[in-house]
Amino acid sequence: MLVFAHRGASGYAPENTLAAIKKAVELGVTAIEIDVHNVEGELFVFHDRRLDGKSSGTGLIEEVSQTYLASLTVDGEPIPKLWDLLVYLQDFDCLLNIELKGMKSLQPFLNLYPQILTQLNFTPEKLLISSFNHHFIKAVKQQYPQTLVAPLLEGIPVDDAAIVSHVNAYSLHLSLSFITAELVVDAHRRGAKVYVYTVDNPQDIHYLMGLGVDGIFSNYPDLIQQIIDSDQ
Ligand code: G3P
Ligand code: MG
């Protein structure tokens, strides 16, 4: 079972910051998930569409300037550029799941992807691109067929895991609140792995292991890994 550090090791450090990524690496995780938004044409790592609440700023993240963003913090940590996290992570043997958030993150990602592969120590197998926006996933796969892509779902579609075949997905990312045995079986039948978010509770881990999922996203990846290991 693969365990992703969700938004970095966000149970221990401010989510989606370099500190959370460093903590995840320190814990020895083999996979990390982060969320990205477009700010003036460049991807920044932040979860919410609004800056209010989680950061020291206000407003819609897609509408602020990079200068303003640079003046903000998340619990004392800067809001990082995706590129800066990639530079840090490139030398670790770790799968990075980049979740494309918002309505404008597709084009900057398409622009950046070739640079990631040519200027940094990343191969396509080390990057997994996911989104709730399945048009984004489809476009990424069409432009760069070697990319690993994953549709996110929060619900139970009437056509089960058909989206896997539509976008030629490497994995299907399901909500813990909306998962059925049929969805898992159908995703596997279509050749995709099943990863489930966000799982921090031991009982939920056992339930998901029973369903045969391939991985989970957790804010406490080390604790979850211990539970998985003790069951094997
Ligand atoms: O990518 C898994 C999970 O992060 C999706 O939901 O809202 O936490 O980004 P969210
Ligand atoms: Mg996410």
The coarse silhouette is: globular
Low-pLDDT segments: none
Total number of distinct structural domains: 1
* Class computed from helices, strands and strand pairing: alpha/beta
Radius of gyration: 17 Å
Average predicted confidence as pLDDT = 97
Largest sheet: 8 strands, parallel, barrel
CATH topology: TIM Barrel
Which ions, cofactors or small ligands are bound in this entry? SN-glycerol-3-phosphate, magnesium ion
Number of strands: 11
Structure description:
The chain is an alpha/beta fold and 232 residues long. It has a single domain, classed as Alpha-Beta Barrel (TIM Barrel), CATH 3.20.20. The strands form 2 sheets. The chain has an 8-stranded parallel β-barrel, surrounded by 4 helices. Strands 4-5 form a two-stranded antiparallel ribbon. β10, α8 and β11 form a beta-alpha-beta unit. The radius of gyration is 17 Å and the shape is globular. The mean pLDDT is 97.
